[in-house]
Specification:
Blueprint: H1 6-13, H2 20-27, H3 31-39, H4 41-51, H5 65-92, H6 96-99, H7 101-108, H8 114-127, H9 146-173, H10 181-191, H11 196-221, H12 246-263, E1 267-268, H13 281-287, E2 289-290, H14 292-305, E3 311-313, E4 320-324, E5 328-332, H15 362-379, H16 385-399, E6 436-439, E7 444-452, E8 463-468, E9 473-477, E10 481-483, H17 494-499, E11 500-504, E12 507-510, H18 512-517, H19 521-535
Parallel strand pairs: 1-2
Antiparallel strand pairs: 3-4, 4-5, 6-7, 6-10, 7-8, 8-9, 11-12
């Protein structure tokens, strides 16, 4: 090894397959390697950008990459310790869920890049898929612990909300010429996703790629188009006028339609299946199907990058684009066609005639997007409805987005935890905390997270507080539930992470706090597990 050139050693030690700990362990083998590892700027610079390849440009570059990574790892220990302390405190008092946010905001601004590092650490915790194979509770910091992931997810959302609220305040102060549709659509998508930086990078890169595809196609049909000899003016702002002549603009628009709708297969959501994902620009670019308003954002963003102006039209029950040359054209964003009477998408649009529709304002677009989300969440998949409702509720509350009608508040309970005292089981109790059940009334799966014994002698049927797959929490009677072993989608329910550390074979294992509240329930769960093992035994 000591005969290898310095350049080759630095290349090997910069490889992302090796962890930072691996590199430091290698440096402890001899003085020569120790000197290389501790003084090489190449190794630690490369390792730094392996972790953060899309570091925001406004954060600049560290003075010394080794020290920066050293700080990152010290921050990791502090973040995990803070998550544990936070969970222990708000398990006793749910008001601590939000009051702990200020401490995290202070920590995230400790250094210039602290916020970025904390987000990376929290996302690593959330995205860990390691299975835990233990019938008893595991330490809080165990990778894959549902309670750890619940805490990390909650704090990341608080940090995101704080960041995005500041982002929106800055956006509203921008001149109207800089308030592009693209920025609005990205903001909505970021609010409902955990990795907000990934949303921004993904959307910008994808739109740039589409604009380049249009140029490639345009070069094959008209290599003398002026777009290849002149630079497109500042497209990050709304364009005041077309950069090309009428004929060249028509060529660009026709090529955009061909690339978006024929080559990439972009289309409107024709099926009656409301889903919030049809409103998120990153998901629409990925799945290539979305609401007309989001398709309009994509179309306008690509056209703006190519020097052509199209304006959003907030048409009733639809969303269009206006393209003006010597005459006015209206574009159906579901298929990219010019509208000359009737469009096949959703409904019939009357002939426009001499009617001129003005471009939609920022507030109109925001209201339209917010109401689309309200409808989609209220009528969409119940599995994630609780999470999306909470996020929409906070979006309306903190950012002040206007909604038509009343805010959707049904099925919007707060997180619930058992009363903070030890429970004594009675002979009437058949089931235990952590057991998976089927509710006979709704035929849906749920998990027990609390129970109440009979209140008097004549009432011998206990009640169980259960969490359903859609996140709803309620009390059910003992005779109305039966045990099962399949967790279904329960592992993705946030309330489950608040109370349980992991799933094991046929039940959820309570975390340390729940174990202390229900110490006798472990025997019931273990007996249920061993009975299952005996039923499945094949001699």
């Amino acid at each position: 090894m000591d005969r290898l050139s310095l350049e080759l050693l630095e290349t090997i030690l910069s490889c992302p397959v090796l962890s930072d700990r691996d590199v430091l362990n290698f440096s402890s083998t001899c003085h020569y390697f120790r000197e290389i590892v501790q003084t090489s700027r190449v190794i630690w610079k490369q390792r730094f950008y392996n972790k953060w390849p899309n570091l925001p440009k406004d954060l600049g570059c560290p003075d010394w990459y080794f020290d920066e990574l050293k700080y990152f790892h010290s921050l990791k220990t502090r973040v995990l310790d803070e998550l544990k302390l936070m969970h222990e405190s708000f398990f006793k008092d749910l008001n601590m869920l939000y009051s702990n946010g200020m401490k995290w905001k202070v920590l995230s601004y400790e250094k210039e890049r602290s916020n970025c590092y904390i987000r990376t650490l929290l996302l690593d915790v959330i995205n860990t898929k390691e299975a835990i194979n233990s019938i008893v509770a595991v330490p809080f910091n165990t990778p894959g612990n549902l309670t750890l992931q619940f805490s990390a997810r909650f704090i990341l959302r608080l940090l995101n909300e704080h960041y995005l609220k500041n982002t929106w305040d800055k956006f509203k102060r921008l001149p109207s010429q800089e308030q592009t549709l693209e920025k609005i659509a990205i903001f909505f998508a970021q609010w409902f996703h955990l990795d907000i930086q990934d949303v921004d990078n993904h959307v910008a890169k994808r739109l740039n790629d589409i604009a380049n595809l249009v140029k490639v196609r345009l070069r094959s049909t008209n290599p003398k188009h002026p777009i290849f000899t002149s630079e497109v003016c500042e497209w990050r702002k709304k364009l005041e006028k077309h950069q090309w002549g009428p004929e060249n603009c028509h060529e660009v628009i026709s090529t955009i339609r061909e690339v978006l709708y024929s080559h990439l297969g972009l289309q409107g959501n024709y099926s009656w299946h409301p889903s919030p994902e049809f409103s998120f620009i990153n998901k629409v670019l990925e799945r290539r199907i979305g609401l007309p308003i989001v398709l309009a954002v994509i179309y306008e963003s690509v056209a703006r990058r190519l020097g052509v102006v199209v304006e959003p039209i907030n048409y009733p029950n639809h969303f269009l684009l206006k393209f003006q040359l010597n005459q006015t054209f209206y574009i159906d964003t579901c298929n990219g066609c010019f509208i000359d009477g009737v469009t096949p998408c959703f409904h019939q649009i009357p002939v426009f005639g001499e009617t001129q529709y003005s471009a939609a304002t920022t507030d109109e677009i925001v209201r339209r997007m917010a109401n689309n989300l309200k409808f989609a969440i209220g009528h969409g998949d119940v599995t994630e409805r609780i999470i999306h409702l909470r996020l929409l509720n906070r979006l309306v509350t903190f950012v002040g987005f206007p909604l038509d009608g009343d805010m959707v508040t049904e099925l919007l309970p707060y997180y619930t935890v058992p009363e903070n005292h030890n429970r004594k089981r009675t002979t009437y109790l058949k089931y235990a905390v952590g057991m998976i059940m089927i509710d006979e009334n709704s035929a849906t799966k749920c998990v027990i997270c609390d129970w109440k014994g009979p209140t008097h002698r004549n009432n011998k049927q206990p009640k169980y507080l259960v969490v359903f797959e859609n996140g709803v929490t309620k009390f059910v009677l003992q005779d109305g539930i039966t045990p099962t072993t399949d967790p279904g989608n329960l592992q993705s329910v946030e309330q489950v992470g608040l109370c349980f550390s992991h799933f094991f074979k046929n039940h959820f294992v309570p975390n340390e706090q729940m174990e202390n509240l229900f110490p006798s329930d472990a025997q019931v769960r273990h007996r249920f597990y061993h009975e299952m093992q005996l039923r499945n035994y094949r001699p």
